Amino acid sequence: MPNFHWTTSGGESARQNLPSQPELGSRMPPSSEDNPSPVLQTNGEGVICYGNPASEPLLQVWGCGLGDRLNSPLQGAVAEVSRSGEPREVTCVCGSAYYQFKLVPLASGRWVNLYGWEMTADLGVSANGEGMVQNLSRLWEQAKVRSRNNSQELQLKIWECLSVQQHLREQQRQLNAIFQEAGIGIALLDREGRILRTNPALQRMLERQEEELQGIAFLEAIALQDALDPPLAEAKAEIQAAIAQCQSLPHKLEVCCRNQKGISFWISLGLSVIQVAGAQPPCFMVLIEDISEGKLSRDALQLTQFAIDAAADIVLWILPSGQFAYANEAAARALGYETQQLLGRSFQEIAPDFATANWDEFWQSMQQQRSFAFETRLQRGNGEIFPVDLTVNGIEFNHHQYICAFARDITERKQTEEALRMAQERSERLLLNIFPASVAKQLKQQAHDNGQMGAAAIAQRFEDVTVLFADIVGFTHLCSRCTPSDLVHILNDIFSTFDRLTQERGLEKIKTIGDAYMAVGGLPEPQENNAEAVAELALAMMDEAARFSVQSGEPIILRVGLATGPVVAGVIGLNKFSYDLWGDTVNLASRMESLGVPGCIQVTQQAYERLRHRYVFEKRGKLQVKGKGETIAYLLKRRR
């Protein structure tokens, strides 16, 4: 490995924690030194343990080196990959260049390898592809002077580079196709809000060519018009503030614009920051949709509805003072007034959730926001209060300002929703008490699709699980000495404790059969350490059995069997169905229990191989197992 002269701040104490050269070399690809792209390795805390020659320029820009903590936008991603143990890809900035890094955890997150390649900013993927071709040429020249023993390695490198190049070109093609063919307008803005690029849909809206739009301020290009919904100054200020603070707009804006031909039209506008990991956002993306036709139709429909006196819902026109200017017959009936009586009242009198002191503030907000929809309460003439869905709209009609309110009594809906919610909660709890969450979800989907839960069998094969059977020794003798209620009470205490131990270890209880308890690790979600988790459960069960013996005065002795291997799990039948397991692994676990030693945990050869490094075992020898013949078994004694 080359001896880079990097500037570091870690000192000797940081270097003492680096892995040895042999240890490091065993984890890095043999081609890392000759790789034209940066290759790094850190420990789980982000301290740099290795870097190939191509990574030296990046580390110099980031101001860190061998033995230092990684001082770059990748630091947070390294910590996340080390914790999760899952690889991920991250884009970051180094000076004026963009890099894509793939972070791969090793040794359960103890080390993280970082494989990088340079990418061009924004839409410059093709330049990156040309750089890759140059890299391929350089690799080919190097290959001519290498020995024939390295030819296979070189071919793999070339294949990887070609694959990446093809992937980048395909990404570029797809992104360009989406950008060009999108039905809505799209604009890319720089940090100052100037237009970098526009798509054809936006160019058609604004009646301008892309060359005319490039470099000018976005607000100048769309030419906002003064409109009541929302006011020009408010919309412009909101967009300017978002650009100045480098923030996305929290909601879409509806504004009126004018194109190059002087034609006004309404648009829905959303502005979002395009994030680049670890760097300042390089630009904004604006999505613009022409909503002129829909807005005009909506306004016309609302004006038509205002004139319908026989509407089924409550319709009220409210003056700036809060008094009613109009109430339809449905409003009078629902609120318990004559129409003329209602017109002499104010909105504050029938809406207990609206304080009179806050009316002016509410009216002003209506002039700005123009429309609200929410749930509230109204009060009848007899004092009865009922829930409603209320929609209020600020409108101008015949040069006068009004609020038009639509209200619908939702008492029955609320009662139905509450009853349905309680029933759903009961069903959810019942299903989750019987089935794993993923299986319960499948059963509910069956009921939704077919109208019947369990209409089709659910089955899935799992290649790596560990099955546990636990049985109370001498249970028949215990039954003869206890009353039925005492016996059930003892079993309930024991199995409830076993349930808690199973849940704490992320395992799945399958069922109880008499005095036997069955659990499994590694399904329905894969669990890498399922054998260890089930072994810990077995040891905890033994401890709890001893505690029960002391508390109850009855000898509670367990016999436990474990087996590791593949199983089939699922739900069969149409009624009284349950989640169960099938296969040789299940049968072996049951035989390990039934042929086991009281007070001991007996495991199969396969389970022993998985656990022998963390637990102490005693070899019991060969057992004659029905259907399997002679089988070697071990007794799990304790943790190492």
Please give the largest β-sheet. Answer: 8 strands, mixed
Q: If you average the pLDDT, what whole number results?
A: 79
**Total E-strand runs:** 24
Rg calculated over all Cα atoms: 36 Å
**Helical segment tally?**
22
Helix content: 40-55%
**Which overall shape is indicated by the principal axes computed on the Cα atoms?**
flat
Question: Which structural class do you get from the secondary structure elements?
Answer: alpha+beta
Report low-confidence residues grouped into runs of 5 or more. 1-18, 20-26, 125-129
From the N-terminal CA to the C-terminal CA, the straight-line distance is 38 Å
Percentage of residues in strands = 25-35%
Task: Please give a handful of descriptors for the protein shown.
640 residues, alpha+beta, 8-stranded mixed sheet, 24 strands, disordered N terminus
What does this 3D model show about the protein?
With about 650 residues, the chain is of the alpha+beta class. Helix content is about 40%, strand content about 30%. Strands 17, 18, 19, 20, 21, 22, 23 and 24 form an 8-stranded mixed β-sheet that branches. The chain has a 6-stranded antiparallel β-sheet with strand order 7-6-11-10-9-8, sandwiched between helices. A 5-stranded antiparallel β-sheet has the order 2-1-5-4-3. The radius of gyration is 36 Å and the shape is flat. It starts with 10 loop residues before the first helix and ends with a strand. The relative contact order is 0.05.
